[in-house]
Amino acid sequence: MKISLPRLLTLCLLGFLPLLPAQTTAPTSPSAHEPRNANEAQLQNKYADKIKPALYQKWLDRVQAASAEEQVWLHTLEDQLGGFYFPHYVTDLFGSKPYEAAEDAWAYVQDEPALPRVLIIGDSISRAYTTTVRQALKGKANVHRAPANCGPTARFLEFGEIWLNQNGRNTWDFVVVNFGIHDGKDPKGYEERLRKIFARLKGTAAKKIFWVRTTPWGKDGAVFENPEADASRITNPISDRLAAEEGLAVIDAHSVMAPLIATALNRKDFTHWTPEAYNTLGKAVTNALVPALTSAATASKVDAPQSSIEPNGTRYKPGLWLATQRQNIDAMKGACDLIFIGDSITFGWDGQLWKQHFAPRRALNYGIPGDTVENVLYRLDYPGLHEIQPKVAVILIGTNNSGPAGDTAKGILAVVNKTRALFPAAKIVLMDLLPTARRTTLITAVNELIKDYADNQTVFRLNLGERMTPEGESWVGLGPDKLHLSATGYAIWYEMLSPRLIQFLGPHP
Description:
Mean pLDDT: 84
Number of strands: 12
Distance between the termini: 59 Å
Structural class: alpha/beta
Shape: globular
Strand order of the largest sheet: 2-1-3-4-5
CATH class of the largest domain: Alpha Beta
Largest sheet: 5 strands, parallel
Low-confidence stretches: 1-43, 300-320
């Protein structure tokens, strides 16, 4: 696919980051109503010195005409592109050339449910090859990219959760990531940040993560004459080592582009490339993805009966789910501040405690007896959940899973990640599995694995086991079956949870 000269100029301008401050705005909510005239549009125009009212009105008209899901994408894109990139993007979007989504790396991507999801994260180099990959994999994968010109690794640590959350989900089958051009001045910090990025991307449960080696670039024209002037020599050895340690697949973009330095590297910024070179790089990325997509599709067909997340037969209560929970969700009409996600332990909350302490906080009980992590993942797909957007989600799930501890822990992480995708602004309280006379060793092993899921920024650990001490052949707070909570157990749960609720929701109403 060829890139027009005007679009290439805009692409290069958007990609030239080294001398520009990082954009730090966070996503904002849409205005109370769409502007009704140019004057109102200009009042909402955060870039009035760079975008004329008529042009900004075109953008707002575009947003208003989009579906609800695409509107979320467009608002996020505007916020993430910020005061430098967004004006250039809008100017190019409504320029003299008719808009073609196929040429727009930041075009909204509506997922085809049957296809795997691919996410491209990286600086301007990755942005330039995104459309080549997307077109080459059309009908084979949903190819998304981060709604930003990602720049240095520090920006991922600040905005990565926003980039990961697209179309209401942050679960990905494959992730393609490259950084490095903006990190050469701080190699030690680059290594530390890259470790964190790799750890987070592995937490998406992606089948494969591809690291794209940094392409050649230079600080001046010496890069055309002297291989020693290639600034990627600073960062590539670091990322090579970390990618090997983490078991990431590597796409050697440096080797692809190095022979093209003399003919295709930009002679003004010494960083960006010609359209033909970007197409070559995009083909290399595509060629790396295709075998992985094919392998995953084959494995999915073979493993489908075993890996299905449909409800687990008689242990699932479809009547209860259909008649009660969906009605409860829909009846809240979005007015929900607190949601409890879990199984029968959550479902069985003491009625008096619930009425006294949680009902005033507009709480929803999303627990079902017998549920496993697979059941919860299934129920989190209910469309009505997108509407409620609680401020706090309390998760207690996994007691009914009887497989290896590692599998249960991964399932709990999948529930956490899916909850984060559904409710990106919510704080998550992740509960340790409760003491029980059943599978004590397994539960202890699971708790040891999941304790590190809490980052104390978005996810916070709550371990009732600290108060549920051994008592004869049982534990304080358990009922006669040595599995479910007694009234005392629910009181302990409320007492230990209450400080977090006050922290995140304010004093009790």
